[in-house]
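Progress narrative, work stream C.
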Amino acid sequence: MSIRYAARTRPGTMVSTWLNSLVSGTAPSGAGYFGGGYDGSNYATVDKFAFGDDSRTTLGTGLSAALRGDAGMANSGTAGYFGGGTTGSFVTTVDKFAFSDDSRTTLGTGLSAALSTLAGMANSGTAGYFGGGQNASAAAVTTVDKFAFSDDSRTTLGTGLSVARYNVAGMANSGTAGYFGGGYGATWYTTVDKFAFSDDSRSTLGTGLALAIAGVAAMANSGTAGYFGGGYPASPFTKQTAVYKFAFSDDSRTTLGTGLSTANRFLAAMADSGTAGYFGGGDTGSAVATVDKFAFADDSRTTLGTGLSIARSRLAGMANGNI
């Protein structure tokens, strides 16, 4: 049994899950999900990776439409959400997957505007956020929509991103703050905006990404550090292997000695906090099925023997992890 899981679990659903595991003698391990994407065609596919053994299954029910450029976020222990994207037409749709049985519903209230290439992050147990993106007029936006997990109601923050951009990435230190980093608007950006969960106020980190970069993905080891990986900068205009790590204690940035297994952009990410984070799919010159795993204990990288069920880029990730 994992004592770490018991110590860090929030009250409510996840406590009940953990207590039930004491009876069975096995601790819940959770799972991560990669949804949507593109490789000549859009996909509704949702692949699920069990954190206990990194095995992959593909959900019988995928997204409500085949699309690309969506974003993901999750209320660990309860449900995950995929929002926005394009089917050929930009959408406001937010699909919700119940972690108890992976069933899908579609929220009655979606995004405040039809957007693609946006980002998601969440304060697990409280609310999730979708930020930035490109609208149907091909303009970058600063919008940040907030979904309360208690009833899935949506509000739009009075203060959005510090600069309008799309192909942005999001990650969060649950209970404290969420971050939106990189992206493209009028130009490429190094900008990392930080939103305090206590009042949704925004600050911009003094140290952003090491390169102005778009098409990046992000995930986090909640309570410790967040990671931005891959993407493509304005100069040199090449896909990247770099993974940048931001320590939540002081928001300082370092660059991992081992980056992604292949230079990549338009990938997705998700994480099992306390254990490992995953970067999946993307475009390395063509769409790939690769999933790289970074152990949070030492930031070492392995590549899963079983990747995505379909090679695709412009997908999204979210996880039922240890928050």
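Work stream C, second folded protein:
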Amino acid sequence: MAVPIYQVDAFTAEAFKGNPAGVCILKEPRDDAWMQNVAMEMNLAETAFVSRRAVGDFDLRWFTPAVEVELCGHATLATAHILWETGTLSPDTRARFHTASGLLTADRNGDRIELDFPANPPEAVDPPDGLLDALGVAAAHVGRTRFDYLVEVESESIVRGVAPDFGNLKRLGVRGVIVTAEGETADYDFVSRFFAPGAGIEEDPVTSSAHCALAPYWGKKLGMTEMVGYQASKRGGVVRVRVSGDRVILGGRAVTVLRGKLTDT
């Protein structure tokens, strides 16, 4: 039996911008090897695999072309978008996802989707050997989260110009590295880029799981609870964030760019 699969550009209102994710709707769970092969075939930063538990409740897993990951925001937003778009979930029903990172929810708020994710604030650390050399930058601050290093630099232009040595970044033994700076215009409160060679991705276009660290970090530094972040990758993407205790609300839009079916092999 063929399996429906979609490609969605997340955290954008325009096709071919934001972060593309695969969304595979399963009638029943599939084995890990099959899902990893599908993710490798899709060759996107992440492909999400979703199966229904009950009305509004779903099991959700995410795979890069190389590994399964514990948390992926843009593919969660893409999944919620598809569930509502296909009528699998009614427009006024909250999507509840049971994941390796606990219960995650998605709601519609006007033309945006809002995700409720756990905050992942970075703790200040000394930069490990090789980190700053691999990035080619001087750091104003270095922190580490559950998954990644966060490196604040002095300006937005430095963030936009970073050209990492990905081989050396991969040797750090973490999922990835967030490089960030305060925004230089009124449009964005902070900017960032995210490099994840440890997960098989050199640069992720828009990374909402990284914003679970960026939101509490910049919220504390700027004295704000609601902010707009811009991820300055080649595709670019806007993430609206709101800090609420130990949670981060991530808001963005999504566009479906591909609908198809996998032959069940």
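The radius of gyration is 18 Å. No further action is required on this item.
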